[in-house]
C-alpha cells in the first residue's frame, strides 16, 4: 500500500514540476515574441516620434515612471545647502530663471510662448509648483533630461549657480505677477552672476 502511495506522490510531484516548467517556457516564449515584434516595429518605423503626436498611455506611463525613479535614485545623496532661503541666492536665481528658463517653463502672468507650445512632453509651468524636492530640482537642472528639451545646465554653470536657481524655484509658486517682475528687475544680470560666482569660487579655492 505504501509503495502505491509513494508512486502516486511521485507522479503528482512530477506533474506539478512539468506544469511549472511549461508556464516558465510559455512566459519566456511570450517575452521573446514581444521583443521580436517590438524590434520589427522599431526598424519598420511604425512608432511615430513626432512631437505633435502624444505617446500612448502605456508608453507615457513607462517614460514618466522611468524618469521619476531615475531622478529620485540619483538625487537621494545630494546635500542641500542651508542658505537656500537667502535673498542673494533667490535674486541670482530669479535673473537666471528669466534668462534661461521662463521661455519654456513660463512665469507668473506670462502667456504660453511659441517654444512652450511646441514642446512635447510639455514643460511644467513651475510657477504652479511641482512635487520635486530641492535635491531633485538641482539634479534635473544640472544634468537635464534626455529627449525632453531640458538641457544640462551643469555643463556651463557651476553647482553654486544651479543652487541659486533651485532657491528661486522654491520661492516662485508664492510670487504674484508684480512680485516676479520686481524680483527679476532687481536681479543681477547673467554676466554679473557668472562673474560673482567665479570670483567666489576662486576665493574659496585659494584658502
Instruction: Kindly report how far apart the N and C termini lie.
Output: 90 Å
Q: What form results from the Cα inertia axes? A: elongated
Question: Beta fraction of the residues?
Answer: under 5%
CATH fold type of the largest domain: Cytochrome Bc1 Complex, Chain D, domain 2
The count of strands amounts to: 0
How would you characterize this protein structure?
There is one protein chain. This protein folds into 2 domains: 1-47; 57-206, Cytochrome c-like domain (Cytochrome Bc1 Complex, Chain D, domain 2, Orthogonal Bundle), CATH 1.10.760. The longest helix has 42 residues, at 2-43. It is mainly alpha-helical. Helix 3 crosses helix 7 (177-186). It has helices at 2-43, 57-75, 87-105, 114-118, 134-143, 159-171, 177-186, 190-206.
Task: Walk me through the topology.
Layout: H1 2-43, H2 57-75, H3 87-105, H4 114-118, H5 134-143, H6 159-171, H7 177-186, H8 190-206
At a glance:
The protein is mainly alpha-helical. The protein folds into two domains: 1-47; 57-206, Orthogonal Bundle (Cytochrome Bc1 Complex, Chain D, domain 2). It has helices spanning 2-43, 57-75, 87-105, 114-118, 134-143, 159-171, 177-186, 190-206.
Features:
2 domains; mainly alpha; elongated; 207 residues; Cytochrome Bc1 Complex, Chain D, domain 2
Amino acid at each position: 500500500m505504501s509503495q502505491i502511495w509513494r508512486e502516486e506522490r511521485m507522479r503528482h510531484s512530477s506533474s506539478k514540476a512539468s506544469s511549472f516548467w511549461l508556464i516558465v517556457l510559455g512566459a519566456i516564449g511570450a517575452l521573446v515574441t514581444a521583443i521580436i515584434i517590438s524590434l520589427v516595429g522599431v526598424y519598420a518605423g511604425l512608432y511615430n516620434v513626432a512631437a505633435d503626436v502624444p505617446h500612448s498611455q502605456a508608453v507615457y506611463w513607462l517614460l514618466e515612471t522611468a524618469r521619476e525613479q531615475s531622478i529620485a535614485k540619483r538625487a537621494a545623496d545630494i546635500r542641500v545647502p542651508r542658505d537656500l532661503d537667502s535673498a542673494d541666492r533667490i535674486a541670482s536665481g530669479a535673473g537666471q530663471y528669466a534668462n534661461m528658463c521662463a521661455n519654456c517653463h513660463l512665469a507668473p502672468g506670462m502667456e504660453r510662448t511659441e517654444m512652450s507650445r511646441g514642446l512635447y512632453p510639455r514643460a511644467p509651468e513651475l510657477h504652479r509648483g511641482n512635487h520635486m524636492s530641492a535635491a531633485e530640482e538641482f539634479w534635473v537642472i544640472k544634468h537635464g533630461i534626455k529627449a525632453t528639451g531640458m538641457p544640462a545646465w551643469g555643463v556651463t554653470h557651476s553647482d553654486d549657480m544651479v543652487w541659486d536657481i533651485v532657491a528661486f524655484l522654491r520661492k516662485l509658486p508664492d510670487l504674484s505677477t508684480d512680485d516676479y517682475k520686481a524680483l527679476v528687475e532687481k536681479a543681477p544680470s547673467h554676466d554679473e552672476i557668472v562673474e560673482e560666482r567665479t570670483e567666489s569660487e576662486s576665493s574659496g579655492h585659494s584658502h
